[in-house]
Give the backbone structure.
Amino acid sequence: YGKLYTAIDLAIMSDLDGNNYPEIAVLGKDSSDGLRVQARDSMTDSVTSTTYFGANAFPVDLEIISNYVAGTIPAVAVHARVWAS
């Protein structure tokens, strides 16, 4: 995370990279690239997934839905208020 990154919420999610350690998903805002959820391996700190959101959303919190579709990676839900510009 950069110096300008502000974390808003975090959640623990199941292992994405197969090393048997969970990932830590962090919802945050960065002045250079807007809103994002970044998943990092809890053992190695390497980035395993990044999802970007539009700048017109005001995120409130983050939730992991582990069994949204059986046999797939977990779904990430971001609760946010959105406004038109």
The longest strand covers residues 5-13.
